[in-house]
Amino acid sequence: MARYADRLLSQGEDVVLRTRQHWLALLVRAAQPILLFIAGLVLLFLSQYVSGTVHDVVGYVVIGAIVISLLWLARIYVSWYSEDYLVTNRRVIKVEGIINKRSADSSLEKINDAVLEQDLLGRLLNYGDLDILTAADVAVDRYRMLNRAPEFKRQMLNQKHDLEGEFSRPLPSPPLRSAPAAPPPAAPAAPARREMTADEVTRALAGLADLRDRGAISPEDYEAKKSDLLSRL
To answer: Any idea where the domains of the chain sit in the sequence?
Structure first.
């Protein structure tokens, strides 16, 4: 059965990595209902030493505490299981919620960097806190106690690099034709200009701006390429 996040994928978009919060985060979120369940068991044990009306009242309290704690635990587990944190070949997607779903995504070309923090326990159990940053150095999303956090970051940056490589590759030139023998050789044909959609131009400009900010290309090269891309609309 397809999960909710799979229905958010666009045509040609593939999931590279799927994960959720670490199981330790589930235990942290379930601390209160677990304590309530233990309190119910303690009351159940103490009810053996009382009788009459007090015994009946304690019995009702015990039943209520145990039922509430079990329902609470079930809700926390279903909420944890419904989480989906995805890295695709185009973006990072975060889906949460049981019935009312909340989804947020960050396009790979707009991601500038990702800050990963792991303590000793996180390194041993393979989880960590990940902050995704945009080109403006503002955290757009936070992933707390993310399972397989180092692999999540690595795949995200790898897919971003591959996507930027598609924009930086030169456009193919038309095949060269041999000139006639008698007349003088003709001037080389100018490379064909491929028309681009507004979305393709926007994505290409974002990738070029990132390369310029990192010093990979000069501002003059960026302006020249920008003019060229805008002329293809």
So the answer is: 29-80, 198-230
